[in-house]
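Q: Could you write out the predicted structure for this multi-component system? I'm mainly interested in how the pieces pack against one another.
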Amino acid sequence: MAVRSKEIAPARATGRARAARKQPAAGSRRRAALASTGRKGRTRKSRSRADQQAAIIAAAERVFAGAGFGGATMQAIAAAAGLPKPNLHYYFGSKKALYQAVLERTLREWLAPADTIVAEAEPREALECYIREKMRQSFTRPYASRVWANELLHGAPELRGTLVRQLRPLVRRKAAVIDQWIAQGRMAPLDSMHLFFTIWAATQTYADFEVQICTVLGHDALDLEAQARATQHVVSLILRGCGLV
Amino acid sequence: MAVRSKEIAPARATGRARAARKQPAAGSRRRAALASTGRKGRTRKSRSRADQQAAIIAAAERVFAGAGFGGATMQAIAAAAGLPKPNLHYYFGSKKALYQAVLERTLREWLAPADTIVAEAEPREALECYIREKMRQSFTRPYASRVWANELLHGAPELRGTLVRQLRPLVRRKAAVIDQWIAQGRMAPLDSMHLFFTIWAATQTYADFEVQICTVLGHDALDLEAQARATQHVVSLILRGCGLV
DNA sequence: CCCGCGATTGACCAATTGGTCAAATTTGTG
DNA sequence: CACAAATTTGACCAATTGGTCAATCGCGGG
């Protein structure tokens, strides 16, 4: 039943024509953004665009976190954002592009807390601050953490480059700071890069595997008190593990 | 060659009849399994069946780990197992059932290492042994860990019940042992349940987020030496964190 | 007041997906 | 050997999915 009467509709606009049409949209988006920052006041138009994009990204983050890239549907994201599906394509072109926009936003937040780790700081204070900030992120933005975790879990096909270009150099820099502290005898000798892996794991587990933790603890969700308790546990366990009393 | 003399077979078995037809298969499967254990020797048939199922589960584990439940396709699993797609349905009925079979297998391995944590044991030795076993699992069966992680990440829709019925009681029992050790002054005071969360996180991160770790370390994969180094790091950090020198 | 352009939308594909079926083929057994 | 049950397989289907498109809407500038 393969052959049908479809042999009539041939070349029309297919393939690369789409991409060509889509790029202009992206172009004008960038233009609009520039205009809103540079010119007198953000016009209603560009503001609406930025808002719309932010709303879509927020909705997409929730849906991707809940179902993974493969399990999420543009339909579901559109519904979560309260928009018809073609709007998503209007703003982001494709599912993958939208996904990357979500990941990009996450990366920035993910890297930020490491700022506290600098050679001039006091080791104990710097690490405690870093861990607390990571814990705070896990509790306040669990969806972002889950999208990130999901991507890594599946081999990070969309951001291998980013890991190499941004995460890796950052970690090496921060690990050097810790090595310096160790050399000065200010903390126990340990593998500084692995220390980061452990801190990430110990903190993000509260976002990524929240169900497991809540189930084991017998809570419905982690209230502020439970969050404080978890934070205190992670901080003291790791600080003691680092020989920082 | 497609349409043929099929117009003869009409209303026959359709709709709910399917499920009915599939159940018998499952029934006979169980029967066969019993026969193979109870009777003289495993017959060629039942062994073949068990082998086939094991092969399918192994293939499914890889594919689910790499793409999540939503991203994995029965086609891909069939290809990975070297079988035509209908065979998967013959053995497991549906994608979800196959997924649950994979999860079930994982759970058993997941729970096993905790056996070392008993009141009679020496805290330091028991915990070290537990952590090392968890690390070993991460390195030898990363796909299983990822399937499990993926499921938790997305809210564990398929195994909430299992978490409540099996994981939770187990953890409570083991946490009680640790609390006892703490009460006896044999290790630093800390929250025993959260200690488990941290150990799980710190160990499984090497399976779940392997890409991230390899990228940061600049390795292609973690060779035996790197594995030993990671294990040593986690063991000593956590033991020191527990006040076990 | 109207014009132009970006934003919105419903209707619509082609491709893929999970799942089915009936016809073969293999296997164990009386 | 013959028969029935178990297994394998290619062809097929309905539903869903990512993505498209032409028609429309609405607002700000002339």
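A: Regarding packing and overall arrangement: Residues 1-46 of chain A have pLDDT under 50 and may be disordered.
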